[in-house]
């Protein structure tokens, strides 16, 4: 969510109407005493249900602060929907900039009832906030039945947050370039060998100069390294779930394949612009690998480009997993909040999870495949090309777990050294893993890879 393009514009527009200081924007509501438990409203949800016909905190006023870093208008509308049902509950939306959020939040969560009761979570910072989180008071099996990623968030029989949607990568292709090369829908590649041939047809060189890249992965080498090796049956972490291993056969084969795209096939070049997204938007690159937020980027910056999407190719058509995914998390509850605040927060979370309308709106906004099983065949969601591209095999994408940022940042450094400094692939990736493992030793991180349903068959 921190990289949402659509959210940026909406949040900026909202600044004029929000008040606050120190980079925070706050939306405040005033609760009243509620004496009517019968709201005349239907029970919502399938397994995780919410019956609105009750009083929260005995109808007495209670105030919750909800911290977030993005889209205060969108999350504010969710709070307002809940407040209409329970007018004694006040939910203040407090929007903090991402850069300072993870420094301020752990300190604020220690302030008991004066701190945030609800707060948005990013799984890469789970290690900073888990100790302050109260588990959801919702039956674990009900959560698993409704949300296909819920089991990956189980900790000692509890769930402290889950996903409302998931994002992963896909191939975006320029439809005008595709047609000009004589390609049709029948040419959509399913394997990397087929992809390489298509990329060659989409590449244009003039007088020894690249003028149209068939495939541009500049800025995304590390993202491909984090996902494609799974196709070969390899994982990012050893069986202990705590030790990174970046020199598996799958990782090395992926890195060599990416280098060969440029050096052997010459379908792109590391000096053909540093940003593949911009190159694609400017009509200079025919294909790029991007995650779901690229849809919002294109809508905002390059609305006139005709493009399509297709699922990432695989090594042989029967991968261990197609790619990794990452989830966008539901809010956490501060265990240090007052009993009244925690009661209201638990009630709000049940409302949030049982309300498919809320989750659909969030998934549309962030271009996410819905984690709620009842939404997976929603036709309106599938109109989004980022969602449509991954919908067929979404169960065969894997979540590595709440990886600390050191994993991605050091693979990014390795990718730069391999691509631009022409360093040895295996030695460079081993160095990256060594650095990551020093950092991981100071955390309680454990990979979630073993929760993937095919885990026992990896390497076969």
From TrEMBL:
Transmembrane segments: none
One Gene Ontology CC term in the entry: ATP-binding cassette (ABC) transporter complex, substrate-binding subunit-containing
Keywords: Signal, Transport
Signal peptide range: 1-22
GO-annotated molecular function: maltose binding
UniProt GO BP: maltodextrin transmembrane transport; maltose transport
Keyword Ligase: no
Domain of life: Bacteria
Record family assignment: Belongs to the bacterial solute-binding protein 1 family.
UniProt protein name: Extracellular solute-binding protein
